[in-house]
Design brief:
- The protein is α+β, with helices and mostly antiparallel strands.
- It has a single domain (about 1-125), classed as VSR Endonuclease (Endonuclease, Chain A, 3-Layer(aba) Sandwich).
- Helix content is about 40%, strand content about 10%.
- It has five helices and four strands, in the order H-E-E-E-H-E-H-H-H.
- The chain has a four-stranded mixed β-sheet with strand order 1-2-3-4, sandwiched between helices.
- The longest helix is centred in the middle third of the chain and has 24 residues, at about 75-95.
Length: about 160
């Protein structure tokens, strides 16, 4: 059963990735040289984002996913506490080395507008859209694209 639990490319992570990409942010995924292998890494901004599941990281929200299982408590309680302690260590290490960190929780993703606002305020303005719009030439009208006069419908070019 535990083999089926994914640590990368989870549904909440994919949602945040799509949202950040649509907003114009570009990022790296799961950089193993950083503590905790953050889900999204923005090297130029020295910023990282972790997308945490409420159960695995024990958020304590009211969604009901962060409760302790009733069976095998002697296994689950220490395991989930280790996850929380490890998360705190990773955030502390990243902060000490000059990285800004944002943790997004699975339960928060139900409100996409709020997440978009948090991403924008955390990462700052996206410049990729501005760069693209400046580098593209102005759109030409269909008439300006062709230098030949338009043919009448139904007529074909004459062969010689």
């Amino acid at each position: 059963m535990m083999a089926a639990v994914r640590s990368k490319n989870t549904r909440p992570e994919m949602l945040v990735r799509r949202m950040a990409h649509v907003m114009g942010y570009r990022y790296r995924l799961h950089v193993s040289t950083l503590p905790g292998k953050p889900d999204l890494v923005f090297p130029a901004r020295r910023s990282v984002i972790f997308v945490h599941g409420c159960f695995w990281h024990q958020h304590g929200c009211s969604s009901g996913d962060s409760h302790l299982p009733n069976s095998n408590k002697s296994y689950w309680h220490p395991k989930l506490e280790r996850n929380r302690a490890r998360d705190a260590e990773h955030l502390k290490a990243l902060g000490a080395s000059g990285w800004k960190c944002l943790v997004l929780w699975e339960c928060e993703l139900a409100k996409p507008k709020t997440i978009q606002h948090r991403l924008a305020s955390f990462l700052g303005p996206s410049t990729s859209f501005l760069r693209l719009s400046k580098s593209r030439p102005a759109r030409q009208t269909p008439a300006a694209r062709t230098s030949r006069p338009a043919r009448k419908r139904g007529s074909s070019p004459q062969k010689r």
